[in-house]
Amino acid sequence: MNRTALRPLIGVSANAMQAAERRHLVHATGERNIHSLLRMVDCIPVLLPPVGTAMDVAELISRMDGFVLTGGRANVEPHHYDGPPFPDDEFIDPGRDALVLPLVRACIASRVPVFGICRGIQEINVAMGGSLHYRIHQLSGKNDHRRPRHDDVTQEEIFRPNHLVKLTSGGLFHSLTGKDELMVNSLHGQGVDRLGNGLLVEAVSPDGVIEGIRYCDNTQFIVGVQWHAEWQPECHELSGALYTAFGEAARARAARRQAHTAVA
């Protein structure tokens, strides 16, 4: 076997959600999160159940070559960033919070690539000491960033490009595309408020909502985007470029891990 050809293992965060018959919870993620990863990155995806401390973060780090933090219905609970309590009917996923937040910090410490999408950017920000706006559309001067609200909405309507984002001059996103701005989709109610420690802004919407961030170390791939980059990334210049860059970082991590295993 040619060991250099081994594909990187990518952990993909799953969510706790109600089963169709509403009798129990299941752990799952949208299939587009997996299929887009398979199309854009030559890897082996592994779903991570949201079981909190029942999964050992150090062991995960030692076995994986990168992590994709997906979107999800539940929001990061506000006690993780000293925010006001949620309403009683707010859907939460404490098992995912308890797993992913320390995982992000461990990935940074161990130089493991992370690509956060929608909820994923919020998790990266909170993990690094940042805070979130609960409902952006309720803030003065902000637009409604949520998905279309009517019942017969199609997938194409939901994920269509919705608004511009301005890219930080000289930043990673700008260097990947050579563009100052581009269109993205928009399906979120929460958003980044106070930026976490060591994080840099890469993209901002016209109403000032942070849409892209990265960790300040240029030699690591720790990136979050607020839009759903997993929707047809091959048709979106920046989303596709970010998947490619994430894949390159994961393959480099896999090569280092395999070399270390061979020496050991």
Q: Any overview of this molecule?
A:
The protein has 264 residues and is α/β, with parallel strands linked by helices. The protein has a single domain (3-263), classed as Class I glutamine amidotransferase (GATase) domain (Rossmann fold), CATH 3.40.50. Helices cover 30% and strands 21% of the residues. It has 7 helices and 13 strands. It has helices at 31-40, 57-63, 94-110, 119-127, 155-158, 172-177, 237-263, and strands spanning 9-13, 15-18, 25-28, 44-48, 66-69, 114-117, 132-133, 163-167, 181-184, 191-192, 199-204, 210-215, 222-225. The strands form 3 sheets. It has a 9-stranded mixed sheet, sandwiched between helices. A two-stranded antiparallel sheet has the order 2-3. A two-stranded antiparallel ribbon has the order 7-10. Helix 3 (94-110) links the parallel strand 5 (66-69) and strand 6 (114-117). Helix 3 crosses helix 4 (119-127). The radius of gyration is 18 Å and the shape is globular. The two termini are 19 Å apart. The mean pLDDT is 94.
